Amino acid sequence: MLKILSALAVGLALVYPVCVYFGLDRLGVRRIGLLVLGLALLRFLASRFGRRAGESPRFISTLWPLAVLGLLAAMIGDERLLLMLPTVVSLSLGLAFLGSLQSSPGSIVERLAHLHHGVPALPPRVTAYCRRVSTYWAVFLMVNATIAAGLALWGSLESWTLYTGLYSYGLILASIAFEYGYRTWKIKPVMRAYKAGLNAQDHQSSAS
Fold first, then answer.
1. Domain containing residue 61
2. Least CB-packed of 30, 116, 118, 169 within 10 Å?
């Protein structure tokens, strides 16, 4: 049930700009604000009681600003509060990536790599690469938040919807595709050789 709620919350978040564009005239600011509040609470409950291994508490903490934003929109009725939601999401995630660069378990991407490969430590080259990827996402998300905020405050509803509901997703997908291609080309061979070395050491230890 928690997985269903989590998937529902993520799906609604992805189509949020389009929902706002078509829903403002029909539902009004206050009702959409209540929906945002409920969405944030659903996602928090799914994360709090069904947390997956490796899911960062930093990501869970980003839900509280969304809940506050939804509550304020429901109370005040200012549509700019609703338009600021993609900004808050992007900024919060960017700060989470940035903060992870200073944390002892390693950057977010490094932790995900540990879980994916199941090794006690990563080669220095891979660790450095993970930090560069985390840095990229921190910068990208904060720049994305700045653009979304500018459109929310000074742009038209149409331009805000087009960027937050289409262009930003396109940039994210392009970044993911490029990183995956580079990782497959340059990083996977390094990890393959590293794992082969670990297996050889294990065989030598068991033989002795």
1. 1-83
2. 118
